[in-house]
Amino acid sequence: MATQQKSFSSNLGAIMAAVGSAVGLGNIWRFPYICGQYGGGAFLIVYLCFVFLLGAVLMMSEFVIGRRSQHRTLQAYGVVAKGKKGWNVIGVLGLITCFFILSQYLVLSGWTTSYIWDAVDGTLASLGTDAGAISDHFSSFSVSTWRPVLCLSIFAVLVLVVVLGGVQSGIESVSKLLMPLLVLLVLVLCVRSLTLPNAGRGVEYLFMPDFSRLTGQGILAALGQALFSLSVGMGAMIVYGSYIPVKDNLFSTAMWITACDTLIAVLSGLAIFPAVFSCGFDPTGGPGLVFCVLPNVFNMMGGAGVVFAAIFFILLMVAALTSAISLLETLAASCSERFNWKRLNSSMALFVLTTAAGVVFSLSLGRLSHIKIADLTLFDLVDKLNSIYLPPLTALATIIFLGWVVPDADVRDELSNHGTIKIGYYPVFRFLVRFVVPVALTVVLITGIKG
Ligand code: TRP
Predict the structure, then answer these.
(1) How does pLDDT run across 148-158, given as a tens digit for each residue?
(2) Which residue among 231, 327, 329 is best mutated to probe the pocket of ligand 1, counting the most ligand atoms within 8 A of its Cβ?
(3) CA 222 to chain centre
(4) Angle between helices 173-194 and 11-22 in degrees, nearest 10
(5) Model confidence pTM above 0.85
(6) How far is CA 339 from CA 72, 193, 322, 446, in A?
(7) Cβ(21) to ligand 1 under 6 A?
């Protein structure tokens, strides 16, 4: 196979960058509210099964495709298929998914950026503990025109700057700096939350399974969340896979990333639920949980609340930043390679396109809310595509590709670093790849499309 042109400098660097990709709004904003909506502990158990049985397997599969081919998402499939035509179409599907996820991600990251500002300049504190005023603030802000667009653009420029910095000095060094900071911030918030009066009820909600609260929809949501949170099912881990040094063990790398991502999601739950219960709020509040409920919780803490509010939204932005970097890198590196564009031009072009799409999605909440497709605003449409249709579809195609098209010997060779490390787990991996994961994904896709 081709020699490695670009790579992370070490296994730690590769793990940090991929953890940076995986840990994002999905862990801190999305996981707690979905877990809250679908019943707490019972959802957590199903989620953990999906993460380790499907998510980690998909991540290893994408790593194998990326590192084996030494190509990015648009060409990797074709190279690994050794000339069998047509497989690159999965890469195209992956990039479309990345494009939509990044555009929507920019909107939410813009909100986070704006909330840091609100926390620092005292706007959030001035809303006091009036739940109505806090949610009015959020709804009037999110449907307004200029501020969300401005914040989104500022955030997008930050992402661009890091991506232009390159694989080692941009992505890897930023991730190595920001990830430990993120863990520290989550831990500070956990300690604060767990020492509030009645915190135990939140812990109980998160860890005591009550299966009567879990529905079929909840199981579906758990799968969507597992794929989203691990950044799999869109070819992003193919690009990072191609940067993993050839001597690294792909199995342990994937396990570390999966474990760290899951740990941060659970810690975010521990930072949020005890506080929500302690202040007497409803954990099933949905997507607004972080923007409408938490400011209230912070304000109830009195003076120090402002500090914790700022810490929380900075944490959210840091998490969003390393994920958005990975999304832009996937798009830019894949197009640059496929169309022979310079890295600078390709990153700039995709930055402009995704930011423009982000602006449209942001406006579709307010000024453009009259534009509807299938009775959904553009924002809701893209949300649906990103959560239930595109990632499971790309994931399904990828796993069938690896299990049934790529020669078994090639997969073994790549996972064992050409026979130099033991892969005792291989029969189990093979069985999951060929049967369990495809069947599970098909069931979920069909249910998702019907529902
Ligand atoms: N995993 C990210 C999160 O939890 C979101 C995400 C989904 C992502 N797909 C991605 C990030 C692809 C980078 C690349 O927030």
Answers:
(1) 999 999 999 99
(2) 231
(3) 14
(4) 60
(5) yes
(6) 12, 50, 25, 35
(7) yes
